[in-house]
Structure to design on (402 residues):
């Protein structure tokens, strides 16, 4: 099945747009004509990455969570993968997700596994998602894994929502403040320059600096725009590269007030993923290799992959984790207890829940600090702008007197 976007006119002469699933373009045209629509435009939708990587669009976490939950329910009900995907895609409001699901269904019909099919769409399905789907297919517990994923994505969406809610008000205030600042620089300050030029005076140094910046930006606007686009493209490519990921993840674990947050988030994700794998019967070595990709930190990923090799050679899991020096004492203690008592899955589940709560509390604490910091920053910007604006007004009378 393919997805086609169309523009048609109905019997009342109204112009309507939408998407339609069909095997071929002609089949899509025939389907629309059967309903007596006049087709003005129809085109097959393809999933491209765009010209600029930093503008490429994935899907919302809410869309991914809804799809995952619906797929779990459909599989539990005994529906086939292709039928489930086709059914879910019909009601999917997001066009990108709708197109991806059709492509996945097509690949499965050709004989691919769900894992192979979603691996073709890393822009939609994160690494941890693809890894856990693989584990679910290997263990035959796909519905259980999907339910776990839906719960995990919901928690992640709530965390992001908490951050965005805390940032919404200060960001709105800063945006309006910047608009006012730009208006003052581009409209008010040039008028002062006109007065000063008329009376042969010079603008105060801070005001003149703002004026020079305004003139420079206005004169080289196109070149500055191109430079910004190229810089964003380069940064996007660097961040997605292996070298870039390594540097960023290493930096995360070195920032003293964020190290604990990122470390516990990665360990919690590792514990939750390994618990699911263990529960579904995936062998510990294979589970560690898969789980390594769910931590979203290449430093932790490297530690887990090395641990998998050492466990394969007969060592206990806790030994290489302790030697890494990164895993917390609490994590080491709980994993050690789990291995000694034969209740590793239970201890991993407890560890993940404990760290999820801890990370959630730390995120809320940090977001409560962001608002006053942003407000102070805004105050500094407005203060500088007022100084730049008031200085020429205070000196104008002296210039006129001269």
């Amino acid at each position: 099945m393919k997805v086609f976007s169309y523009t048609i006119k109905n019997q009342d002469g109204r112009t309507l747009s939408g998407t339609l699933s069909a095997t071929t373009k002609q089949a899509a045209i025939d389907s629309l004509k059967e309903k007596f629509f006049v087709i003005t435009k129809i085109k097959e939708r393809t999933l491209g990455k765009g010209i600029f990587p930093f503008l490429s669009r994935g899907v919302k976490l809410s869309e991914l969570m809804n799809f995952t939950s619906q797929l779990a329910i459909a599989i539990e009900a005994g529906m086939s993968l292709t039928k489930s995907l086709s059914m879910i895609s019909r009601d999917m409001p997001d066009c990108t997700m709708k197109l991806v699901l059709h492509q996945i269904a097509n690949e499965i019909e050709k004989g691919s596994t769900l894992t192979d099919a979603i691996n073709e769409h890393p822009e939609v399905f994160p690494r941890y998602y693809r890894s856990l789907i693989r584990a679910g297919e290997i263990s035959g517990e796909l519905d259980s894994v999907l339910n776990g994923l839906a719960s995990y994505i919901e928690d992640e969406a709530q965390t992001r929502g908490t951050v965005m809610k805390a940032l919404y008000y200060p960001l709105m205030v800063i945006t309006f403040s910047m608009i006012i600042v730009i208006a003052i620089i581009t409209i008010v300050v040039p008028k002062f320059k006109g007065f000063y030029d008329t009376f042969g005076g010079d603008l105060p140094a801070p005001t003149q600096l703002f004026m020079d910046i305004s003139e420079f930006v206005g004169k080289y606007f196109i070149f500055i725009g191109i430079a910004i686009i190229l810089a964003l493209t380069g940064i996007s490519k660097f961040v997605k590269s292996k070298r870039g990921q390594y540097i960023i993840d290493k930096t995360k674990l070195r920032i003293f007030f964020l190290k604990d947050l990122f470390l516990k988030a990665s360990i919690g994700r590792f514990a939750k993923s390994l618990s699911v794998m263990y529960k579904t019967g995936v062998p510990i070595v294979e589970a560690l290799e898969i789980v390594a990709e769910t931590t979203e930190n290449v430093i932790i990923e490297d530690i887990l992959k090395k641990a998998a090799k050492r466990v394969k050679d007969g060592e206990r899991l806790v030994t290489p984790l302790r030697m890494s020096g990164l895993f917390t004492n609490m994590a080491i203690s709980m994993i050690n207890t789990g291995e000694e008592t034969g209740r590793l899955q239970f201890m991993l589940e407890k560890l993940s829940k404990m760290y999820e709560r801890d990370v959630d509390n730390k995120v809320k604490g940090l977001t409560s600090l962001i608002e006053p910091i942003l407000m102070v920053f805004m105050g500094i910007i407005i203060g500088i702008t007022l100084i730049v604006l008031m200085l020429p007004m205070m000196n104008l009378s002296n210039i006129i007197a001269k």
Q: What stands out?
A: The two ends are 81 Å apart (CA to CA). Residues 2-45 form one domain. The chain is about 75% helix and 5% strand. Strands lie at 2-9, 15-22, 38-44.
